[in-house]
Amino acid sequence: MKKVSLFFIICACVITACAPRRDLVYFSNLAKLSSEEKLQNQEVKIQQNDLLSINVNSLNQESNVLFAVNKPSNSENSYRLEGYRVNREGLINLPVVGNIRLEGLTTEQAQTTITKELEKYVKKPVVDVQLINFKVTVIGEVNKPSSFTVQGDNINLLEALGIAGDMTVYGKRENVLVIREQNGQRTMKRLNLNNQDVMNSPFFYLKQNDVVYVEPDKSKAIEYSPNTRLMPIVIASISAIAVLITAVLNK
After folding, report:
1. Pick the CATH number of 51-131 from 3.40.50.300, 3.30.1950.10, 3.40.50.620, 3.20.20.70
2. Which of 87, 94, 165, 198 is the S-S candidate for 143 at Cβ 3.0 to 4.6 Å?
3. How many CB atoms lie within 10 A of CB 125?
4. Is the pLDDT of residue 35 over 60?
């Protein structure tokens, strides 16, 4: 009987050892954090192929109609119904004004640049520039994987994970992959969300079209493995045999 009990203990230990122990707490070394930290400037810059909403208001109503967002245009370099597209040269084509370089500017800087150009043609223009296609995708071990449009021009990794319903218990918090395409180049960076230093990474604040991938840990692969699914049947069979042997030996 003692041998049978020892056998079950060994089986339990083997099964338990299959699941690695992980830290599920974000910034688990937060005790080292000082009470104040200066936030890094992570402003989003306008890139090629970005889509911009540009609203112009002035004292001239005719000019306002000319620059209206919903005004269609036949020019390929100008905006379409949805907004102004930044072309491969980093330019937009604004009615009357013509080409304006906006690549590398923040939306506030773009507003200042456009305003200066419009002042040559329009009285006291007021310009508002918004990034329309600021999209972020979160996939992998999150509760609601999806792509979503960011309102405004600032979002960090934690906010994106929050919109995606946070990580599941299987998500590797110490190994989150951010994929970024910028100026025709693809960059990939792995971040450790168990470490407070991740907030100093240039990838902590996301940019337009970033993809966040949360990798599952090995325990999920073990749980969904066909061999693992057979484990309860195997254990039940062994238990039945053990009970039968015990009953025979006790006679």
Report:
1. 3.30.1950.10
2. 165
3. 21
4. no
